[in-house]
Amino acid sequence: MKIGGKFSAFDISAAGLSVQRKRMNLIAENIANADTTKTEKNEAYKRQYFKVTAKNSFPEAMKMEGNKMKLQMTDSNHFSGINETPSSDPVVQTGMKVETVEDNTEGEKLFMPNHPDADENGYVEMSNVNIITEMVDMISATRSYEANLTAMNSSKQMAKDSLEI
What we know:
3 helices, 37% helix
């Protein structure tokens, strides 16, 4: 049974939970590879992060006029094109676009002439992952996950209470 419309509170909270779970997995991968000096590309591991944006999937019936959004009701099925490909992923259902981006900043170069990955001058390029930054990001992702979980539980409680009326 579906409660609410296409963008119900459950769908939005589920999308938030999904994004934060994926974000925590990516942070864990960054931490695990913090000391990796050579990958398949023969370079030091580069930090990865998520870029989450809203897809521009709304039909032409929605227009911005000044700071207000106007909805033109010309067709009763004008929302049918929002989610053309059905998906079970709540992130896709709410119209968010999640992409993994690689941080191309250079890592620290350490003088280690006996290291197998050292260049001709004896320097080894380390990964650009900063453990402190990753741990702060992990705490932030955990707090965001908890906030989405609280919102979902509140929505569930409201739906349950409305059935008792």
